[in-house]
Amino acid sequence: MTLTRRDIALAGLLGPLLAQAAPFAAKAQTPAALPEPPAAAHDMSAMPAHWMGSEKIAFLIYPQFTALDMVGPHYMLTSLMGATTHAIAKTKAPVTSDTGLVFTPSATFEDCPADLDILCVPGGSMGTLAAMRDDDTLRFLKDRGSRAKYVTSVCTGSLLLGAAGLLQGYKATSHWAARPLLTEFGAIPTAGRVVRDRNRITGGGVTAGIDFGLALVGSLRDRTYAEGVQLLAEYAPEPPFDAGTPQRAPAEVTALIEGMFTTFLAEAAETGRAAFARAGSL
Signal: present as a keyword of the record (predicted)? Predict the structure, then answer.
């Protein structure tokens, strides 16, 4: 297997954690039999076999998506040694996020691997509604999502999954303001920063994508590996304010933000219903 530069870096940086890896190593391997940590970053001999994978991961990107919805889990999931990650768009033209960041797709809908281990869909606002109206996007999601090992989203990306018919009968979450709309797609709105129902994993608003990605790293490797990735990222959030949920934010702040969503939610409900109905025949 060809290793990327990041695989090699992770091999060297995670190597010192091997002393704690015994409980997670192959059952036939005893702590005493563990080899010494690798002396060089390129030496993979000391790594537990299950730390190396071959996952195929695809992130959908589309005009005006929310960058952090994608970038947060992208950082975590590209920490999976051996995995191949694609940024998928309708064409290979640069894609501009809702804050003006520009992304270069690595593959188109046609080029994307047919069978994915992880399909991840970020959210947005007006860009997400536009994506719901695009039959090519819905067709792509419906096709790849029907076979992917894990079908996932962050924030209002779950509305896109729902519109493509991929959440019927599944518990799912979204941004807190949009979560009730999931009923339009036959999903079961469920509160939570990360909600998992069988092979559907949905994250709440924006920053929840970091938690979702790290949790999936732990599932696909083991706790020691995931803790190493967390430590490398120095992911130990201590926000300067405690207003990250409607329950914890001051009432006047919650009311202000809710008011900003009124038009979007009405349009999302109408657009979502229409997209969900069309997707059945795509």
Answer: yes
pLDDT band, residue 46 (cuts 50/70/90): confident
| 154 in Cβ contact with 73 (< 8 Å) | yes
Q: Which amino acid makes up residue 54?
A: S
Contact criterion met (CB below 8 Å) for 67 and 101:
yes
Query: Do the beta carbons of residue 17 and residue 227 sit within 8 Å?
Result: yes
Q: Report the half-sphere exposure of 42 (CA within 13 A, side-chain side).
A: 2
CA-CA distance, 232 to 228, in Å (whole number)?
Answer: 6
Contact 133, 271 (CB under 8 A): yes
Q: What is the pTM of this model?
A: 0.88
- The CA R_g of the chain, rounded to the nearest whole Å, is 20
Q: Which residues contact 144 (CB under 8 A, 6 or more apart)?
A: 58, 112, 114, 116, 119
Q: Is 17 helix (H, G, I), strand (E, B) or coil?
A: helix
Which comes out higher in pLDDT, residue 6 or 176? 176
Locate 102 and state its tokens.
């520009």
Which residue ranges form the domains of the chain, and what is each CATH number? 53-235+248-280 (3.40.50.880)
Strands 118-121 and 150-154: parallel
- Asked if 126 contacts 270 with a C-beta cutoff of 8 angstroms, the reply is no
Beta bridge partners of 88: 60, 107
The C-alpha angle with vertex 222 and arms to 216 and 224, in degrees rounded to 5, equals 115
Neighbours of 60 (CB within 10 A): 27
What 8-state DSSP symbol labels residue 150? Answer: E
Number of H helices, E strands in the chain: 9, 11
Which residues are annotated as catalytic? 155
What is the DSSP-derived secondary structure letter of residue 93?
A: S
Number of neighbouring beta carbons within 10 Å of residue 120 = 30
- Please report the beta strands in the chain, taking only residues with DSSP state E, as ranges in sequence order: 56-60, 84-89, 95-96, 102-103, 107-108, 118-121, 150-154, 171-172, 188-189, 194-197, 200-203
